[in-house]
Fold this protein.
Amino acid sequence: MSTSPRFYSPYDESFWSSVSDDAASMQRCSDCEQHRYPPSACCPNCLSTNATWEKISGIGHVLSWTTLHKQYLPAYPAPTTIVAARLEEGPIFLSNIDGKEVNALKIGAPVKIIYGDHPDGYRIPRLTLNCTSIEAKR
Amino acid sequence: MNYPYPMSIHDSAEAADHTISNVAAVIGIGQTDWVADHKSVREGKKPFDSYGYGATAFKRALDDAGISRSEIDGLVVGHNASFERAGEVYGVNARWGGQADAVQSVVTAVMAIKSGLAKVVAVVYGHDQRSAKVQYGGPEASGGDRHLSYVYHAPMGLTSQGALYGLMYRRHMELTGATEWDLGQVSVAQRQWASRNPRAILRKLITIDDYLASDYIAEPLHLYDYCMVNDGGVALIISETSHARCRHKRPVTIRAIGRADLHEQSATLKPRLIDFYHPAHRLVANQVYNAAGIGPKDIDAFYVYDSFSCHIPFALEGFGFCGVGESGRFIAEMGIGPGGRLPINTSGGQLSESNMQGWSHQLEAVRQLRGEAATPVLNCRHVQYVSDVVGKVFSIIYGVD
């Protein structure tokens, strides 16, 4: 098994391709318009297999977090903090957050997807609480 | 307080199905010597493969039941075994059988007996998970070829079963005011049970201070919130009830079975973080309590699948022993250890006795109802088992006349 498996289904490549452009997209059902993540063959809401890939806003709010104090993955020395966020498009999204932001985490806090490099040579979506400064840079 | 969850599952199961109540009974139990197995594995030896552990437990269960292998006409083996190879190694040509996890094995045995497809079913589990170095997190995590939540998000840094429960307990703390101290009571109590149990691997008592001082693994979870990973085997012999009464001095009857699932957005943890599995807990509670004609107050000992300690507060709140957010106070007031008013995981469970992936709880349930447990619960008549692994909520109520 690869040290960082990413491609589990024929639908994962589109997601990672969008991330490589720093513009994460998710599948959206062409029939009922519901977003879904991780990518899959059909819409769990209406079973339609018709979907488009749409760029997401990357904006959401914190549901929970955990800090791993043991190193499990070569790319992630301890401590690594993982945040679960509800995106405004609907799906829950899980990724890491910078250690300096951990003390400010609370349920409901606004978060935004940013992008960083994985040591295995690909871009990854991350999360930050620093939403206002990102908006200001635009 | 209540979590704001939508009722996303249908509740047609609310009308209790009594048809599988009292159909079957456990007439035999067996296990390997977990303490010796663990010592041997820690010394770098490999006493058995998974089939060897299973065979040892199976033979002991047959001896305990006082029946010969030729009477077995149904065989269910653990999720990690090949059914056909198990039949070959164990010398069983069943007329019905398959593979299943612990609770599903008992359920399918009862279904087979009810339908007439089998009369006496052996359910046999053996696992070399420690000596085979099975991983539940990291780059070699088992399930890495599938869409499992604890491997799918690894490129973003999320891995391990513990991280999923860390996320779940953190949100529970933030929403309800529950504390690490509240959760620590579980590990302390289960170690008290284990300290009195010669079959338990981890028997050294711990205090709540030891718990709070122990290392975080997936914060807010500490080391003591994690189950152990060890080798071993478990087997049960389940028989049609009238046959069981003829053959065993004190059969333990399977009084009720319930199940409800929650899989919506499970890869991104919605059933855990939004629902805490509670909608399914409630449906299953209705099924088993209606079928058995009892309620939480009638449960003499409670068994909860405990890969992590936080399964216990979530089960107490989901099955109506207390309200959501009240489990910390409930545990402190009732007591769940030896002498407590609601004994939970009375062998020490997977945190302290042995991690047999839900199978050892079935043995201890039977032992308590037979009066053969290391620390007997007085006047034990009804015990309940609960598991909610990966969105499949099950419960079984066992009883004696």
Summary: The radius of gyration of chain A is 15 Å.
